[in-house]
Amino acid sequence: MGNHRILLYFTLFFITYLLWAEWQMDYGPRVVTSVSVQQGIAASDTAITTPEASLVMDALPIKTEDQETTTEASQRIQIITDVVDFEIDTRGGDVRRVTLRNYAVHADQPEIKLDLLSDENAAYHVAQSGLVSIDQASAPNHNAIYKAEQTVYRLGEGVNELSVPLHWTGPDGVKVTKLFTFRRGEYDVDVEHRVTAGQKDWSGNQYMQLVRKRPSEEGESMFIRTYTGGVVFNQEIKYVKVDFDDLAEENLKAEIGADMCLNQKPGVKDCELQDGWLAMIQHYFLAAWIPEHDASNLYYSRYNAETGQYSLGARTPAKRIVAGETADFRSRLVVGPKLQYALEEIEPGLELTVDYGILTIIAKPLFWVLDYFHGWLDNWGWAIIFLTISVKAVFYKLSEMSYKSMAKMRKVAPRLKLMKEQYGDDRQAMSKAMMEMYKREKINPMGGCFPILVQIPVFISLYWVLLESVEMRHAPFILWIDNLSAMDPYFVLPVIMGVSMFIQQKLNPAPIDPVQQKVFQIMPFAFTIMFAFFPSGLVLYWVVNNLLSIAQQWVITRRIENS
């Protein structure tokens, strides 16, 4: 393989990768049917053996749309913190709307903030939680009407925590307080059901679920499309995606938690207690429920074809409460941006929702470096430039090997052209003569290939870092680049990138094959058109990388040609 083919192969590889990623998004294998999950399904009806649990095993809320089980009217409770505005309905204590105060829908309209959760029909996405019991009248589900102490709550200046209680009273004196606890600067909310049994013992479970409609894919591009759908995580089954097609096809039923030990293979004696969570994720943002720890939680899904609503939820083990006594059911709701360092502190594994794919092991250190430069420069555009310089410095020697090989090939290119004219269609003689010349000139025709192949995983990792990081969303750079997550409005960066590719081609040895020559002539124009639809942050990286490569290659080429 000649050195002049390297760029072509790299280009084909990258385009093939994008097509493969797009195909995986639509038609890839469903990971929800993995062995671990299937084991959970098989054992889910037998792992919970306590009498309390068996009473309500089948008492899960199946229908997720609003059920008018009472004529009593509900009201909305508004909670305003420094980072979110919540709307909670007294019907079930459902979280009906969450507005992110620091994130706008569009960069050019910063006053219109993003609603991550909403009960509007087209964008239906709500968070529900409640209690179930064999005596359902004694347990408030997401259709029960709570009483609120006030309708507006605001996190005051100098106050770090805000509690919002809702109250419900059932038959036989059962009392339930549903308590939401908000903290300054945080997107996770503690949700607690405090149950006081009445005149007789009470037994029941807590459940929590996310209910939403499939979002529209209008306006999405194959270059910026990311995963939207459900996720279930546990240290045993790891990170399992459950997309909308999975949810519509069959219900998920997997027990994840303490009793996962019962599902291990024979001969495994030790089993650590592992905790998990579920989430609905999308580009840049997520909503997640984190059930109680140290418990075996049943994860489930439902699809309602009539309403088009998908639900993903979890149910905790049952608790028996002696008459007159009080017990708590605890969980956490996370609704906000996918800030990976913050997510790491909230719950192990939650940072994986920033989905870098199979190259996460490379992408996470790259983001760390990018974040470091941002902390120093306070500008994500300059951080991308310095990250590109750093990556280029790390691979300087490998690039030098590649450019030296290309320079030597460029130097002997006229002789190769004479050989082609001399041997004509005798390819065997041509190949023999070329190899003899390479040996005399100490040229390794593969010398320029390996260094670039090594850098391909790094480039793809950078692609996902710049695409997935919410920190880049609506981030300004300089001049006309006021949004690194959107395409260049004047196409300046794509044009510079195309020109830089053209210059690089002139520094590379010219292909002998006329067909390859035509392909190389088209490539700068094709890439310019393709990159015109890329987020400008990605194009900025490519432009800086190309300019650095041109400078390095020009110096090495002149040195070899003058030797």
Structure description:
The protein is α+β, with helices and mostly antiparallel strands. It folds into two domains: 3-18 and 371-561, no CATH class; 35-63 and 75-353, Beta-galactosidase, Chain A, domain 5. Helix content is 36%, strand content 25%. The protein is built from 13 helices and 20 strands. The protein has a nine-stranded antiparallel β-sheet. Strands 5, 11, 14, 17, 18 and 19 form a six-stranded antiparallel β-sheet that branches. A five-stranded mixed β-sheet has the order 4-3-2-1-7, with no helix packed on it. A hairpin with a 2-residue loop joins strand 3 (95-106) and strand 4. It is elongated. It starts with 5 loop residues before the first helix and ends with a helix. 39% of the residues are buried.
Explain briefly what this protein structure is.
The protein contains 13 helices and 20 strands. With 563 residues, the protein is an alpha+beta fold.
Which spans have pLDDT < 50 for at least 5 consecutive residues? 1-9, 19-69, 258-274
The CATH class of the largest domain, by name, is: Mainly Beta
Number of helices: 13
- Tell me the Rg in angstroms: 29 Å
* Beta content: 25-35%
Please describe the structure with a list of short key phrases separated by commas or semicolons:
13 helices, disordered N terminus, alpha+beta, 2 domains, 20 strands, 563 residues
Secondary structure elements and pairings:
Blueprint: H1 6-27, H2 35-43, H3 51-55, E1 76-80, E2 84-89, E3 95-106, E4 109-117, E5 125-132, E6 147-148, E7 152-154, E8 161-169, E9 175-183, E10 188-196, E11 202-213, E12 229-234, E13 238-242, H4 244-249, E14 253-256, E15 276-282, E16 285-290, E17 297-304, E18 309-315, E19 319-321, E20 326-337, H5 340-346, H6 360-377, H7 380-394, H8 396-423, H9 427-441, H10 449-468, H11 492-507, H12 514-531, H13 536-561
Parallel strand pairs: 1-7
Antiparallel strand pairs: 1-2, 2-3, 3-4, 5-11, 6-8, 8-9, 9-10, 10-20, 11-18, 11-19, 12-13, 12-15, 14-17, 15-16, 16-20, 17-18
